[in-house]
Structures are given as C-alpha cells and as structure tokens.
Amino acid sequence: MRGELATAFKSGSQKAGNVTEAWGADNFYCPNCSSPKLDWLKPGTKASDYKCPSCGFWYQLKSKKSRISNSIRDGAYGAMMEAINEDRAPSFFFLHYDFLSWNVINLLLVPHFAFPSSAIIKCPPLSPMARRAGWVGCNFDLRRIPADARISIVKEKQITPSNKVRAQFKKVKPLKELSVKERGWTLDVLNGVRNLGKKEFTNTDAYTLARQLEKLYPDNRHIRDKIRQQLQVLRDMGLLLHIESGRWRLPEN
Predict the structure, then answer these.
(1) Which residues contact residue 43 at a Cβ distance below 8 angstroms, ignoring those fewer than 6 apart?
(2) Which helix (H) or strand (E) element contains residue 140?
(3) Of these four, 54, 183, 194, 199, which has the most CB atoms within 10 Å of its CB?
(4) What average pLDDT does range 143-167 have in this prediction?
(5) By the 8 A CB rule, do 65 and 99 touch?
(6) Which of 154, 197, 190, 162 is nearest to 174 (CA)?
(7) At the topology level of CATH, where does 181-249 sit?
(8) How many CB atoms lie within 10 A of CB 158?
(9) How high is the pLDDT of residue 19?
(10) Protein fold of 3-173
(11) pTM of the predicted protein model
C-alpha cells in the first residue's frame, strides 16, 4: 500500500482509512462482472466506499491491523438491519493489513446477498455518560455466513486469481434472486448443514438444526417442513447435491 499517504493525517484511524481505501481504489476489481476497476466514492458516501462503473454493484471496505476474526465491528444496528431487510446493503471487503509495512495480509469478500439477519449481532446501547448515549451498534458474526460466501481474495499474502474469485461469486449469486425473507432461511440452513461437519448427510441430520432455527424464526411452527424445502432450494441452486431420497452431499468449494 502507499504508506506515504499517511503523512497527511494525524490520527491513526485517518491514516489507516485513507491508505487502505486508496489501495482498494488501486487494486479492487468487480467480482460480479469483468470490470478491472471499482470507482472510489467520495468520503462520507453512506454505507459504501466503491461502486462498479459497469454493473453498478456497491462495496464497502472494513480494514483492521489485526487478523480477521469471527466478530467484526460495524455501524448502527438499526441502519444495517434496515439495509438488509430492504436489500440495499453493500458487499463487504474485509482487509487485514500490517501497519508497519503497509502490506496486505488477508482480504475476504462477502457478497451483499450472503448476509442473513442472524449474522448481525446487536450490541448493548452506549451508557448515559457516553457522547452518543443510547446509540446501538452491531457486529458481523462471520460464523453465521456460509463458507461458500466467504470468498478469499488474499490469504496470508497469497493472491487468489481473479477468475477463481469471480467463479465463486457466480456460484453463490443465485441467492440474490430470492426474496430477502426467503434468503435468510436459505443462508441459515446452508450454514447449518455445512456446520454438521459431514460431506454427506441425511434429512434426519438436517433436522438437528431445528432447535437453533426455532430461535431464529420463533413464529414458524413447521420447522422440519421448512428445512426440507430449503434443502430443495439449495439443490436447485447447485449449492447442494441430492444423492437419493433423504440423502444429500455438499459440493466441493
């Protein structure tokens, strides 16, 4: 990264923000289409840092000098939930960099259509003594996003070829065509069956997810029926393979 850009700023957050966003402007390409560049938007553009000049997809960058953990701080809880429910959230780049050398270590992409509401964790409101008393923030829980949709662009300084990144993006893009409400179910079931730890599983195995899905969807009284339905949706998308009646296989990533 162009670390010399940091000299124009005083605070560490300003230095990191400008250097990392400039690096994104220099290096990001669109995973959704063939555009080799993304447009860097004006500072303060609500919820987005970049836009593809060809397909119009929006992207936001979250950067940190520590490793990308399961929990990543975001902004206001209400605003993020509203963006997801109205299907206007950006896709996110999560960047891990070395502050001393200004080198990129890891870069992860999560498409905007891969965030179930269950992945947005509400934080306690700020105390009455805080400057923004009562403000409620949120964190992303990456464990609640299916592994299929956590797309590695750089891993331990090793760059994934752009054609592979775009192929993985294309693989999960059918999720975008689902309604927001239905998409949440599909993502939660996909994440659940991946977390079973089995390459092949049965309907009975999938039914073990019922208790956690009941907590996420307390108004649904037909959880098992919904699980079976979502397995079929995932099969139709190519994100799950149907072996025989009641038996399923996860495809290779």
Answers:
(1) none
(2) strand 137-141
(3) 183
(4) 97
(5) yes
(6) 190
(7) Arc Repressor Mutant, subunit A (1.10.10)
(8) 8
(9) 93
(10) PvuII Endonuclease; Chain A (3.40.210)
(11) 0.93
